[in-house]
Amino acid sequence: MDYAPPPIYDHAYKGRLEVRHGTLAQVEYVCHTLEGIVSSYRALGCAKTSTGSCFIMIPKIGGKVTAHMQAEIRRHEIGHCNGWPANHAR
Question: Burial, 2: exposed, middle or buried (Cβ in 10 Å; 0-12, 13-18, 19+)?
């Protein structure tokens, strides 16, 4: 499965970006409970935008999470900051 956003969304975010790191359990809690993002999938990260800013929650490196995996999740979530829809439309 390709987790990279389409090229139109795959670039640095131009607004204020807040990045929080946590364990996989913390990511799941923040994304699905605190941020209220409804999904049948286990959250590996999430993005929430507001005017001129975007918050992303991604897992910290360690255990099952490698630096490469973290970078790919970050890239995916920044794609959402840039307007990539949650349905992952290509």
Answer: exposed
Torsion, Cα 76 32 51 3, to 10 degrees, reads: 10
Residues 6+ apart with CB under 8 A from 62: none
Q: Are 90 and 21 in contact (CB under 8 A)?
A: no
Q: Which pLDDT value is given to residue 36? A: 67
This prediction's pTM: 0.89
Q: Strand locations in 8-78, DSSP E?
A: 16-22, 46-50, 53-59
33: CB partners within 8 A, 6+ apart: none
Residue 70 token pair:
């973290």
Residue stretches of the chain with pLDDT short of 50: 1
